[in-house]
Amino acid sequence: MDCPAAGPSLWGSPASQCSGPGPACLALAPSSARAGASDISADQQWIALGGPDRILKIYHTKDGSLEHRIKKHTEWITAVEFSPDSKYLATGDRNGGLMLWEAATGQEMFNLPGHKGAITAITWRRPSVSQALRTSPSTARPTPLPTASGAT
Question: What is residue 127's predicted lDDT score, i.e. its pLDDT?
Answer without folding.
Answer: 56
